[in-house]
Amino acid sequence: MKKKGVNSRRRELLKATAVGLGAGIVSFVAIEKDQLMKVLKPVSLDEVIGLVEAEEGLGKYEKRAREREEEIKKMCRAEADKTCLDKGEESPECVEARSRCEKIVVKATPPKPGTRFVMALDINKCIGCRRCAYACVMENNTDRDTGIEWIHVLELHRDDLELLNTNIDYGEEAPRKDYVYIPMACMHCDEPSCVYVCPVVATWKEDDGIVVVDYDRCIGCRYCITACPYGARRFNWKKPRVPILELNPNMHILGNVLRYPHVVEKCIYCVQRTRDGGIPACVEVCPVGARSFGDINDPEGPIRRILERYGAFVLRPETGNKPMFFYYFGPARTPPRSEKKR
Amino acid sequence: MQLVGILIMLPMLVAISTASEEANIYPCQKCHVTINVTGITKEEIVHNKNLTIGAHRGLYCANCHKAPTVWIMEGVNGTAIEIGIRGIHGREKLDEMALVCANCHYDIYQDYKRLAHGNSTFTCEGGKIINIAGYKGVVYSFHECEEYRNFTPIPARACVECHNPHDPTMEPPSILPRHNYIAPTPEQDNVVYGTLAVAITAMSLVVLAIVRGERR
Amino acid sequence: MDVKSLVDTVKYILVNGLKGSKNYYLFLAGLSIIMVYGIYNWVFVQHAPIFLKSEYGGLIVTNLTDSVPWGIYIAFFIFWVGVAAAGIVFGLIAYVFNNESFKKVAILGEVQAIASIIIVLLLIIADMGQPLRALILMPQLPNLRSMLDWDFLVLTGYLLINIIGLLYTVHMYRQDKPLGKKFIIPFIIIAAPFAIGIHTVTAFISQALTARPIWHSPLLAPRYVATAFASGPALLLLVLLVAEKYMKGFRVDEDVYRKTMYVIVGSMIIGLYFSLSEAQELFWYTNEPWKKAQAELLFMGKGEPGYLVVLFAGWIILGTISVLLALIPKYRNSYWGRVVIASLVIVAVIFEKTMTIIVPAFIPDPLGRYVTYYPSPIEYAITIGIHALGLIIYAVLAKASLSVIVEHYGEKS
Known about the structure:
The structure holds three protein chains of three kinds.
Chain A: H1 2-30, H2 33-40, H3 45-49, H4 62-87, H5 92-103, E1 105-107, E2 117-122, H6 131-139, E3 152-157, E4 179-184, H7 193-197, E5 203-205, E6 211-213, H8 223-227, E7 234-235, E8 250-252, E9 264-265, H9 271-274, H10 281-285, E10 291-295, H11 302-310, E11 325-328
Parallel strand pairs in A: 1-8, 2-11
Antiparallel strand pairs in A: 2-10, 3-4, 5-6, 7-9
Helix pairs in contact in A: 4-5
Chain B: H1 2-16, H2 21-24, E1 43-44, E2 49-50, E3 72-74, E4 80-82, H3 91-96, H4 98-101, H5 106-113, E5 120-124, E6 128-133, E7 139-144, E8 151-155, H6 159-162, H7 189-211
Antiparallel strand pairs in B: 1-2, 3-4, 5-8, 6-7
Chain C: H1 3-18, H2 22-46, H3 48-51, H4 72-85, H5 88-96, H6 100-127, H7 131-140, H8 147-174, H9 181-207, H10 220-246, H11 254-283, H12 289-300, H13 307-327, H14 329-332, H15 335-353, H16 355-358, H17 377-409
Helix pairs in contact in C: 1-8, 1-17, 2-17, 4-6, 4-9, 4-10, 5-6, 5-9, 6-8, 6-17, 8-9, 8-17, 9-10, 10-11, 10-15, 11-13, 12-13, 13-15
């Protein structure tokens, strides 16, 4: 008697399993094959280890950059339509939004051989105004909801350059007497810990010295954030949102292209500008000219000039990362705000 | 003698005082034929220039403005440079004034030429730079270009655009608002209630199981 | 052995493990509710932008920040890797030291290892931003310098080893055959280093980073292994005591309990000694500001969060009490004494190995900011859900394997 009961229960279990399995297979096949392929093959191996034949003058990420450009343009046009519906077809917002969408370009500019990009910052000049941090936000399409900022400016007493006793919440009384202001972002180290610890090779140091993140590979484990001794990396804790009127159409696939949720990002020396001959946004906006950017191998460039005349130091050299961001005490000091206007 | 000079000038000054402050005094030849700036002059009341204060207080007017044609100054390479005034002249003219500053500040001038002093920016072909007020009030230079390739870096401003030659120390600009480095976590009251409900239900089931008699 | 009998063994394990008295079903049902709630929160709230492509949700719902990117998930990951590593203890004593009483309970070590590794893998997947990408990209192009890749490798390897061991043991015992030497010797030779290896690699993830001074010490890996060998056998002890009560015909030799207590006490003493050594290194002469600031947060409670110093003090106090209790034979050899000592050990090691290791390394952060971390409700929900799933698997597999033990060794055992 008992055996019959057990047998019938076993049959029920098998029947249920079969039905479940059948339903699973049907839904599996019914998913769009494209989406499925995207999930199963986020990044092709050839792209990463360089088996793809690079076209003349173009980088090996060109194909992916094209695809991403199409996707972003589609998203942008949907947003622009929404704006136009809201504000009307003739409104300046609508016109600007539509023109912004058409200008979008996702480049994949490769590094120029023999270049080594380095940034220098004059601590005597910096007044802690934070314009570099916020121009960086405007340039690099960072998430506005969580307010991701790649550069953080710290206030330190001049006598004590220990990065522990910093104050990041100083206010309008800056620059204070006897205090220095140190903007910190990615140092683009020569032996970066963050590159060593990434489990999927989603971040690496390019030939021109820029440490980049491949947003299609990043798995969001946050090991690199843990490994960076300069607190340079940021995480997209939610889906990043950039208002369409603040979108920077000049994008690079390894730089400021629109990111996904749950990937890591950081300063990329404005690769969308610098690889085409420009200068980063932080250098451009600094009102006291504290920042300089250039190729350390260029004998006529600003970096060589600064290193020869003023010398430089780096922060936290004891961590052994060999940061390529030089701080120096330049020839003249911006007066503190408390000194009376003469 | 000077009193007579001022009396001659007064009606002309009144006549052209309706124009802008600097336009008033430019070009110098509007009112002057020559200007005899003597060696110990440090103040000029009419044009409101005062060299007794500021970073150039060690100088006299005659150090840069050489009589009798004081609107023509000497550059570091010996050329004669006509005066360029911020607000009146364009960037090209103002750039020439750098050679005058280089007379004393030659090393800074070299830094400037190699983009190691002061702002730099870049230009693209057929493009323009639009300054827009952006995130937290920063004035961001939006580069509108036909295609975003082939940029050329240039110094952003001439010497005199940042430094007033008579009071050269730049006042520190304003400080923008604080960083936000902690993103606030959304409200999770329903998660709290849900977890409590689930935990209580589950625990009661488990306790029931244990209490209902366990001996074999 | 052919495929059909293997399938039979698997079926036996599942059917036997899932079938039971009404109380057993109530127990499993309670845990299942928690598990489903935890998984719901993970799929539909925390990882909604990934799985549902939604605009809401995301890891923003946790209290993790750029300053403290690892929290409760990684904290409990470390604890459970330790528990898994210690599953090998019973196997070692049974087969290397040829102890008959331990041979009867060695299978429980494998069961504990499997359940713990599953909890560990689920915690990691719950914490990762893009889990599907991880599963595909890590094998596609791993970075052999990254300890996280090695961790993944050894964890899955250890899981496979234990599954094979469990299946083989159940298979043999069902047919009333003893375990062959040709299986046991290679098994132990591979499994024992793997067991130490999983916890060593877990420690290597943290200890080589110059960016986190309080972790940057070679003592981290030995510390982990010592406390693992205290908490793992303690959990096994508790499960044995529970199984004796609820499982018909299952009896454990007194020798098992005694030897397990020795292992637990010895490991606890070593663990406490390592804490002493750490305290001296951090405070005696150290003037390194960052290391000192992190240590003062943990040892003296200077700064937020305040629970760190409470947990650390709890580890020292409960650990010492459990060691002292265990040194007294009256408590060590009594039923309730063993329950209390094992529970104290497990609680003490949880205090020492979860938040007190992870959080102080991030506060203060490299920019000198003190950003505090208290887990958010959803992190609790998901963590408890994963633990419930682990407990279900533990119960099911333990029931199946222990009933096979009873059958094999007979009622008299």
